[in-house]
Amino acid sequence: MRKPTALAFALALSTLPAQAKDPSLGATTYTVYEAWMSPAQQPGEESEVPKPLEKSLGATAPSTPREQRKSRGHGQLRFSKDLTRAYVDVEISGVNASDIIMFHIHCGPPGVLGPIVVNFGETESPAKQLANGKMSLELTNNNIVYIKDMKGMKSGLPESCPAELGFLPTQTKTLAGLEYLAKKGVLYFNLHTKAHTYYGEMRGQLYPVTQP
User: What predicted TM-score, i.e. pTM, was given to this entire model?
Assistant: First the structure.
């Protein structure tokens, strides 16, 4: 009795349509994350910069308390399904582009400062990239910040966020690792200005895009 049943099951499987998809779709379909940036997401005021860092990272212009800043922004991070490319689209308001000094994607949960994973100032200053309040660019594995590329840093202090904590932390080196961190909700945009250098002008935690 078992053989006919097994044969019937095998025949049924053979009549099902193929489930594999066209490989080229991996480069043209996306997983999307977004962040709504605001000063309120920063974990502290510029006036609270640790004393040892005041000279090296202190602001060069008068700061404004978080609740009084008008800066806002929206950022989107799209990963191709084959994880060979990622695309960043950002729009900001309430910020003078000439005051922008740094713009990054960091790794850290809400309310926590974390290391840089992507530095948008590698090829062109963020002030120029956001001159009209908008920025769009493409990322590859080469854009992931990794300890060996950070001059003067010790191997025991990785700049790139660990992909997973285990016996030995493993640094993120690929877009696949970056997307893994995005799924965990531990990536955030951080825009730094002359007045808000340490914590940043505004921050936006990245989360999966949800349909309204």
Answer: 0.83
112 has pLDDT over 60: yes
How far is Cα 6 from Cα 138, in angstroms, rounded to an integer?
Answer: 51
Token pair for residue 159?
């700049």
| Structural domain spans, the chain | 21-208
CA distance 88 to 210: 18
Structure tokens at 84: 């060979």
Q: Would you tell me how many other CB atoms lie within 10 Å of the CB of residue 173?
A: 16
Taking the C-alpha atoms of residue 165 and residue 70, their distance in angstroms, rounded to an integer, is 38
pLDDT at 1 over 70: no
Q: In what order do the strands lie in the sheet with 30-37?
A: 134-139, 86-93, 72-80, 30-37, 207-208
pLDDT of 161: 74
Token digits for 62? Answer: 């008068």
pLDDT tens digits along 171-209: 888 999 999 999 999 999 999 999 999 999 999 999 999
Given a contact cutoff of 8 angstroms between Cβ atoms, the answer to whether 73 and 191 are in contact is: yes
Sequence-ordered strand ranges (E) for the chain: 30-37, 72-80, 86-93, 100-107, 116-119, 134-139, 162-164, 170-171, 187-193, 202-205, 207-208
State residue 152's pLDDT score. 47
Q: What is the Cα–Cα distance from 91 to 37, expressed in whole angstroms? A: 10
